[in-house]
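Lab notebook page, bench 4
Experiment: in silico fold of construct C2
Operator: M.H.
Input chain length: 379 residues
Purpose: comparison with the prior construct
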Amino acid sequence: MTDKKIHVVWVMANNSTAPYFNWFAELASKHSEIKMSFICLFPQRPRMIDDMKKFGCECHWVKYNSRSRKSQLILGTLRLFWLLLRIKPDIIHSHLFDDSLMSLIASKLAGVKKRFVTKADTGFHYFYTPRWVLFDRLNNRLATHIIAISTESQKFILEQEKADPRKVHLIHHGIPIDKLTEQNPAYKTEFTIKWRLENRIVIGVIARHIGWKGHKDIIIAAEKLAPEYPNILFLFIGNGDIKDEIERLVSLHNLYNNITFIGWVEPNRLPSLYGLMDIYVHAAKYEPFGLVIPEALANGVPVVSTKTGSALDAIEHKKSGYLCEYDPDDIANGVRYMLTQNPGNIIGLEGKKVAEKFYTIDKMYANHLKLYKEACSSL
Protein backbone atom coordinates (compact mmCIF):
# COMPACT_ATOMS: atom_id res chain seq x y z
CA MET A 1 0.00 0.00 0.00
CA THR A 2 1.17 3.57 -0.64
CA ASP A 3 1.85 6.10 2.11
CA LYS A 4 -1.76 7.34 2.10
CA LYS A 5 -3.75 6.96 5.28
CA ILE A 6 -5.48 3.64 5.88
CA HIS A 7 -9.22 4.31 5.82
CA VAL A 8 -10.89 2.25 8.55
CA VAL A 9 -14.67 2.23 8.98
CA TRP A 10 -16.11 1.04 12.29
CA VAL A 11 -19.71 -0.21 12.31
CA MET A 12 -22.15 -0.51 15.20
CA ALA A 13 -25.82 -1.59 15.26
CA ASN A 14 -28.53 -1.18 17.89
CA ASN A 15 -26.76 1.55 19.88
CA SER A 16 -27.03 5.31 19.41
CA THR A 17 -23.53 5.78 20.84
CA ALA A 18 -20.72 3.67 22.25
CA PRO A 19 -18.12 5.00 24.71
CA TYR A 20 -15.18 3.03 23.35
CA PHE A 21 -15.98 4.21 19.80
CA ASN A 22 -15.54 7.75 21.14
CA TRP A 23 -12.30 6.87 22.94
CA PHE A 24 -10.88 5.28 19.80
CA ALA A 25 -11.94 8.18 17.59
CA GLU A 26 -10.28 10.64 19.96
CA LEU A 27 -6.99 8.73 19.76
CA ALA A 28 -7.19 8.38 15.98
CA SER A 29 -7.76 12.14 15.65
CA LYS A 30 -4.40 12.72 17.33
CA HIS A 31 -2.45 10.38 15.02
CA SER A 32 -1.85 10.52 11.30
CA GLU A 33 -1.62 6.84 10.40
CA ILE A 34 -5.30 6.14 9.82
CA LYS A 35 -8.48 7.90 8.78
CA MET A 36 -11.42 6.70 10.86
CA SER A 37 -15.04 6.82 9.80
CA PHE A 38 -18.10 5.34 11.47
CA ILE A 39 -21.40 3.80 10.47
CA CYS A 40 -24.29 3.60 12.92
CA LEU A 41 -27.22 1.28 12.16
CA PHE A 42 -30.10 2.63 14.21
CA PRO A 43 -33.83 3.49 13.81
CA GLN A 44 -33.47 7.21 14.65
CA ARG A 45 -30.69 9.72 14.04
CA PRO A 46 -27.95 8.42 16.37
CA ARG A 47 -26.04 10.47 18.91
CA MET A 48 -22.87 9.06 17.37
CA ILE A 49 -23.14 11.59 14.53
CA ASP A 50 -22.62 14.47 16.95
CA ASP A 51 -20.04 12.54 18.99
CA MET A 52 -17.84 12.01 15.96
CA LYS A 53 -18.03 15.62 14.80
CA LYS A 54 -16.00 16.53 17.90
CA PHE A 55 -13.13 14.41 16.61
CA GLY A 56 -13.37 15.40 12.95
CA CYS A 57 -14.61 11.95 11.92
CA GLU A 58 -17.34 11.17 9.42
CA CYS A 59 -20.31 9.26 10.78
CA HIS A 60 -22.86 7.75 8.41
CA TRP A 61 -26.35 6.81 9.57
CA VAL A 62 -28.01 3.77 8.05
CA LYS A 63 -31.57 3.12 9.19
CA TYR A 64 -31.98 -0.24 10.85
CA ASN A 65 -34.65 -1.39 13.30
CA SER A 66 -33.99 -4.73 14.99
CA ARG A 67 -37.66 -5.09 15.94
CA SER A 68 -38.25 -6.36 12.38
CA ARG A 69 -34.94 -8.16 12.36
CA LYS A 70 -35.12 -10.50 9.39
CA SER A 71 -36.42 -7.99 6.83
CA GLN A 72 -34.26 -5.22 8.27
CA LEU A 73 -31.10 -7.35 8.00
CA ILE A 74 -31.75 -7.66 4.26
CA LEU A 75 -32.53 -3.95 3.81
CA GLY A 76 -29.60 -2.93 6.02
CA THR A 77 -27.21 -5.07 4.00
CA LEU A 78 -28.34 -3.43 0.75
CA ARG A 79 -28.03 0.06 2.22
CA LEU A 80 -24.55 -0.73 3.53
CA PHE A 81 -23.51 -2.14 0.14
CA TRP A 82 -24.34 1.12 -1.66
CA LEU A 83 -22.70 3.21 1.05
CA LEU A 84 -19.48 1.17 0.93
CA LEU A 85 -19.33 1.46 -2.84
CA ARG A 86 -19.36 5.22 -2.35
CA ILE A 87 -16.90 5.66 0.52
CA LYS A 88 -14.50 2.85 -0.51
CA PRO A 89 -12.77 2.01 2.82
CA ASP A 90 -9.62 -0.07 3.05
CA ILE A 91 -10.94 -1.85 6.14
CA ILE A 92 -14.44 -2.48 7.46
CA HIS A 93 -14.58 -3.33 11.16
CA SER A 94 -17.75 -4.56 12.88
CA HIS A 95 -18.28 -5.37 16.57
CA LEU A 96 -21.60 -7.06 17.35
CA PHE A 97 -23.63 -9.70 15.56
CA ASP A 98 -26.18 -7.62 13.64
CA ASP A 99 -23.69 -5.09 12.31
CA SER A 100 -21.22 -7.88 11.53
CA LEU A 101 -23.62 -9.97 9.48
CA MET A 102 -24.74 -6.99 7.40
CA SER A 103 -21.38 -5.29 6.97
CA LEU A 104 -19.40 -8.46 6.23
CA ILE A 105 -21.81 -9.49 3.47
CA ALA A 106 -22.07 -5.95 2.09
CA SER A 107 -18.32 -5.32 2.19
CA LYS A 108 -17.55 -8.66 0.53
CA LEU A 109 -19.92 -7.77 -2.32
CA ALA A 110 -18.53 -4.21 -2.49
CA GLY A 111 -14.98 -5.48 -2.87
CA VAL A 112 -13.59 -4.35 0.51
CA LYS A 113 -10.58 -6.61 0.86
CA LYS A 114 -9.97 -6.41 4.62
CA ARG A 115 -12.95 -7.28 6.76
CA PHE A 116 -12.46 -7.22 10.54
CA VAL A 117 -14.88 -8.39 13.19
CA THR A 118 -14.45 -7.95 16.95
CA LYS A 119 -16.42 -10.73 18.63
CA ALA A 120 -17.78 -8.62 21.48
CA ASP A 121 -20.83 -10.86 21.96
CA THR A 122 -19.13 -14.25 21.63
CA GLY A 123 -21.24 -17.12 22.92
CA PHE A 124 -24.63 -15.41 23.06
CA HIS A 125 -26.22 -17.44 20.31
CA TYR A 126 -24.51 -20.66 21.37
CA PHE A 127 -26.00 -20.46 24.86
CA TYR A 128 -29.35 -18.77 24.20
CA THR A 129 -30.42 -18.97 20.52
CA PRO A 130 -28.51 -21.90 18.97
CA ARG A 131 -30.23 -21.62 15.58
CA TRP A 132 -28.22 -18.43 14.94
CA VAL A 133 -24.82 -20.08 15.52
CA LEU A 134 -24.75 -20.92 11.81
CA PHE A 135 -24.58 -17.18 11.10
CA ASP A 136 -21.79 -16.69 13.67
CA ARG A 137 -19.81 -19.19 11.64
CA LEU A 138 -20.76 -17.42 8.42
CA ASN A 139 -19.39 -14.17 9.88
CA ASN A 140 -16.15 -15.96 10.69
CA ARG A 141 -15.88 -17.22 7.12
CA LEU A 142 -16.55 -13.80 5.59
CA ALA A 143 -14.09 -12.00 7.88
CA THR A 144 -10.42 -11.78 6.99
CA HIS A 145 -9.50 -10.92 10.61
CA ILE A 146 -11.30 -11.97 13.79
CA ILE A 147 -10.51 -10.19 17.06
CA ALA A 148 -11.09 -12.06 20.31
CA ILE A 149 -11.22 -9.79 23.35
CA SER A 150 -10.18 -12.36 25.97
CA THR A 151 -8.48 -15.74 26.00
CA GLU A 152 -11.78 -17.36 26.97
CA SER A 153 -13.44 -15.72 23.97
CA GLN A 154 -10.56 -16.79 21.72
CA LYS A 155 -10.88 -20.41 22.84
CA PHE A 156 -14.63 -20.33 22.26
CA ILE A 157 -14.27 -18.87 18.76
CA LEU A 158 -11.79 -21.60 17.81
CA GLU A 159 -13.43 -24.58 19.48
CA GLN A 160 -17.16 -23.87 19.22
CA GLU A 161 -17.42 -21.58 16.21
CA LYS A 162 -14.70 -23.48 14.30
CA ALA A 163 -12.98 -20.33 13.05
CA ASP A 164 -9.77 -20.50 11.02
CA PRO A 165 -6.95 -20.08 13.60
CA ARG A 166 -4.96 -17.99 11.11
CA LYS A 167 -7.65 -15.30 11.25
CA VAL A 168 -7.99 -15.05 15.03
CA HIS A 169 -6.09 -12.38 17.00
CA LEU A 170 -6.32 -11.55 20.70
CA ILE A 171 -6.67 -7.84 21.50
CA HIS A 172 -8.08 -6.85 24.88
CA HIS A 173 -10.48 -3.97 25.19
CA GLY A 174 -9.04 -0.89 26.86
CA ILE A 175 -10.32 2.04 28.89
CA PRO A 176 -9.15 5.64 29.37
CA ILE A 177 -8.07 5.15 32.96
CA ASP A 178 -7.69 8.85 33.77
CA LYS A 179 -11.25 9.61 32.66
CA LEU A 180 -12.81 6.59 34.33
CA THR A 181 -11.22 7.24 37.72
CA GLU A 182 -12.33 10.87 38.10
CA GLN A 183 -14.30 10.73 41.34
CA ASN A 184 -16.49 13.68 42.31
CA PRO A 185 -16.93 14.29 46.07
CA ALA A 186 -20.35 15.89 45.48
CA TYR A 187 -21.61 12.79 43.65
CA LYS A 188 -20.23 10.55 46.42
CA THR A 189 -22.07 12.56 49.05
CA GLU A 190 -25.27 12.45 46.98
CA PHE A 191 -25.04 8.66 46.56
CA THR A 192 -24.23 8.10 50.23
CA ILE A 193 -27.32 10.01 51.33
CA LYS A 194 -29.65 8.70 48.62
CA TRP A 195 -28.88 5.02 49.17
CA ARG A 196 -27.97 5.24 52.88
CA LEU A 197 -24.44 3.93 52.47
CA GLU A 198 -22.97 5.34 55.65
CA ASN A 199 -21.58 2.60 57.95
CA ARG A 200 -22.40 -0.07 55.35
CA ILE A 201 -20.14 -2.61 53.69
CA VAL A 202 -20.86 -1.64 50.08
CA ILE A 203 -20.65 -4.38 47.44
CA GLY A 204 -21.06 -3.18 43.85
CA VAL A 205 -22.65 -5.26 41.08
CA ILE A 206 -22.85 -3.53 37.70
CA ALA A 207 -24.53 -5.73 35.11
CA ARG A 208 -27.60 -5.96 32.94
CA HIS A 209 -30.36 -7.95 34.61
CA ILE A 210 -30.13 -10.95 32.31
CA GLY A 211 -29.73 -14.61 33.12
CA TRP A 212 -26.04 -15.25 32.58
CA LYS A 213 -24.83 -12.28 34.67
CA GLY A 214 -25.23 -14.33 37.86
CA HIS A 215 -27.56 -12.15 39.97
CA LYS A 216 -29.32 -15.22 41.36
CA ASP A 217 -26.04 -16.64 42.64
CA ILE A 218 -25.19 -13.27 44.21
CA ILE A 219 -28.56 -13.26 46.01
CA ILE A 220 -27.83 -16.68 47.51
CA ALA A 221 -24.33 -15.49 48.49
CA ALA A 222 -25.87 -12.40 50.11
CA GLU A 223 -28.20 -14.62 52.12
CA LYS A 224 -25.18 -16.53 53.45
CA LEU A 225 -23.26 -13.34 54.31
CA ALA A 226 -26.02 -11.26 55.89
CA PRO A 227 -26.07 -13.08 59.28
CA GLU A 228 -22.27 -12.59 59.60
CA TYR A 229 -22.27 -9.01 58.30
CA PRO A 230 -25.67 -7.42 59.02
CA ASN A 231 -24.48 -4.08 57.59
CA ILE A 232 -23.53 -5.57 54.21
CA LEU A 233 -25.27 -3.93 51.23
CA PHE A 234 -25.17 -5.13 47.63
CA LEU A 235 -25.92 -2.41 45.08
CA PHE A 236 -27.48 -3.90 41.94
CA ILE A 237 -26.71 -1.31 39.26
CA GLY A 238 -28.39 -1.69 35.87
CA ASN A 239 -31.66 -2.82 34.29
CA GLY A 240 -32.79 -5.75 32.20
CA ASP A 241 -35.40 -8.32 31.24
CA ILE A 242 -35.34 -10.35 34.45
CA LYS A 243 -35.31 -7.47 36.93
CA ASP A 244 -38.81 -8.35 38.24
CA GLU A 245 -37.74 -11.95 38.74
CA ILE A 246 -34.62 -10.88 40.64
CA GLU A 247 -36.64 -8.51 42.82
CA ARG A 248 -39.03 -11.34 43.69
CA LEU A 249 -36.07 -13.49 44.76
CA VAL A 250 -34.75 -10.70 46.98
CA SER A 251 -38.19 -10.48 48.60
CA LEU A 252 -38.45 -14.27 48.95
CA HIS A 253 -35.10 -14.39 50.77
CA ASN A 254 -36.02 -11.32 52.88
CA LEU A 255 -32.92 -9.42 51.72
CA TYR A 256 -34.31 -5.93 51.10
CA ASN A 257 -32.05 -4.61 53.88
CA ASN A 258 -29.02 -6.10 52.13
CA ILE A 259 -29.73 -5.62 48.41
CA THR A 260 -30.71 -2.31 46.81
CA PHE A 261 -31.66 -1.81 43.15
CA ILE A 262 -30.46 1.55 41.89
CA GLY A 263 -31.06 1.23 38.15
CA TRP A 264 -28.95 2.88 35.49
CA VAL A 265 -26.20 5.30 36.50
CA GLU A 266 -24.79 7.87 34.07
CA PRO A 267 -21.28 6.88 32.93
CA ASN A 268 -19.69 10.11 34.17
CA ARG A 269 -20.99 9.31 37.68
CA LEU A 270 -19.82 5.70 37.82
CA PRO A 271 -16.24 6.45 39.01
CA SER A 272 -17.68 8.21 42.05
CA LEU A 273 -19.84 5.17 42.75
CA TYR A 274 -16.79 2.88 42.47
CA GLY A 275 -15.18 5.17 45.04
CA LEU A 276 -17.83 4.16 47.58
CA MET A 277 -17.50 0.41 47.04
CA ASP A 278 -15.63 -1.80 49.47
CA ILE A 279 -15.74 -4.72 47.01
CA TYR A 280 -16.88 -5.26 43.43
CA VAL A 281 -18.53 -8.63 42.60
CA HIS A 282 -18.91 -10.05 39.09
CA ALA A 283 -20.68 -13.41 38.84
CA ALA A 284 -21.25 -13.91 35.10
CA LYS A 285 -21.40 -17.49 33.84
CA TYR A 286 -19.57 -16.44 30.68
CA GLU A 287 -18.20 -13.04 29.74
CA PRO A 288 -16.50 -12.21 26.43
CA PHE A 289 -14.70 -9.39 28.27
CA GLY A 290 -16.59 -7.35 30.89
CA LEU A 291 -15.47 -3.70 30.80
CA VAL A 292 -16.74 -3.12 34.33
CA ILE A 293 -13.96 -5.34 35.70
CA PRO A 294 -11.09 -3.11 34.44
CA GLU A 295 -13.11 -0.08 35.54
CA ALA A 296 -13.41 -1.41 39.10
CA LEU A 297 -9.74 -2.44 39.14
CA ALA A 298 -8.63 0.97 37.86
CA ASN A 299 -10.55 2.62 40.71
CA GLY A 300 -8.73 0.49 43.27
CA VAL A 301 -11.80 -1.57 44.19
CA PRO A 302 -10.93 -5.16 45.17
CA VAL A 303 -12.66 -7.48 42.70
CA VAL A 304 -14.30 -10.83 43.34
CA SER A 305 -15.10 -12.40 39.98
CA THR A 306 -15.93 -15.70 38.40
CA LYS A 307 -13.17 -17.10 36.20
CA THR A 308 -14.25 -15.40 33.01
CA GLY A 309 -13.40 -12.62 30.55
CA SER A 310 -11.00 -9.86 31.54
CA ALA A 311 -10.85 -11.07 35.15
CA LEU A 312 -9.48 -14.48 34.15
CA ASP A 313 -6.84 -12.92 31.89
CA ALA A 314 -5.40 -10.41 34.34
CA ILE A 315 -6.23 -11.15 37.98
CA GLU A 316 -3.84 -13.21 40.06
CA HIS A 317 -5.93 -15.08 42.63
CA LYS A 318 -5.74 -13.59 46.13
CA LYS A 319 -3.09 -11.10 45.02
CA SER A 320 -4.80 -8.67 42.63
CA GLY A 321 -8.33 -10.00 43.09
CA TYR A 322 -10.27 -13.13 43.97
CA LEU A 323 -11.23 -15.61 41.24
CA CYS A 324 -14.19 -17.71 42.36
CA GLU A 325 -16.05 -20.69 40.97
CA TYR A 326 -19.53 -20.38 39.45
CA ASP A 327 -20.98 -21.07 42.87
CA PRO A 328 -22.74 -18.91 45.51
CA ASP A 329 -20.64 -20.44 48.31
CA ASP A 330 -17.39 -19.43 46.62
CA ILE A 331 -18.72 -15.96 45.80
CA ALA A 332 -19.44 -15.58 49.52
CA ASN A 333 -15.96 -16.92 50.30
CA GLY A 334 -14.46 -14.28 48.03
CA VAL A 335 -16.31 -11.50 49.85
CA ARG A 336 -15.21 -12.89 53.23
CA TYR A 337 -11.61 -13.03 52.01
CA MET A 338 -11.66 -9.39 50.97
CA LEU A 339 -13.19 -8.36 54.29
CA THR A 340 -10.66 -10.27 56.40
CA GLN A 341 -7.49 -10.66 54.34
CA ASN A 342 -7.09 -7.27 52.63
CA PRO A 343 -5.41 -4.91 55.12
CA GLY A 344 -4.88 -1.42 53.76
CA ASN A 345 -6.63 -2.50 50.55
CA ILE A 346 -3.42 -4.10 49.26
CA ILE A 347 -5.45 -6.25 46.84
CA GLY A 348 -7.25 -3.23 45.44
CA LEU A 349 -3.95 -1.44 44.89
CA GLU A 350 -2.50 -4.48 43.11
CA GLY A 351 -5.64 -4.64 40.98
CA LYS A 352 -5.13 -1.03 39.95
CA LYS A 353 -1.64 -1.94 38.68
CA VAL A 354 -3.20 -4.79 36.69
CA ALA A 355 -5.63 -2.42 34.96
CA GLU A 356 -2.81 -0.01 34.13
CA LYS A 357 -0.75 -2.85 32.64
CA PHE A 358 -3.35 -4.78 30.65
CA TYR A 359 -6.36 -2.60 29.95
CA THR A 360 -5.50 0.90 28.74
CA ILE A 361 -7.15 2.41 25.68
CA ASP A 362 -3.69 3.38 24.38
CA LYS A 363 -2.62 -0.26 24.36
CA MET A 364 -5.84 -1.27 22.62
CA TYR A 365 -5.34 1.43 19.98
CA ALA A 366 -1.70 0.48 19.38
CA ASN A 367 -2.58 -3.20 18.93
CA HIS A 368 -5.35 -2.38 16.47
CA LEU A 369 -3.14 -0.02 14.50
CA LYS A 370 -0.41 -2.67 14.25
CA LEU A 371 -2.91 -5.23 12.92
CA TYR A 372 -4.42 -2.74 10.46
CA LYS A 373 -0.97 -1.92 9.07
CA GLU A 374 -0.06 -5.59 8.74
CA ALA A 375 -3.35 -6.32 6.98
CA CYS A 376 -2.91 -3.48 4.49
CA SER A 377 0.77 -4.04 3.76
CA SER A 378 -0.15 -6.19 0.76
CA LEU A 379 -2.72 -3.80 -0.74
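Observations: The radius of gyration is 21 Å. Residues 179-358 form a domain with the Rossmann fold fold (CATH 3.40.50.2000).
Next step: discuss at group meeting.
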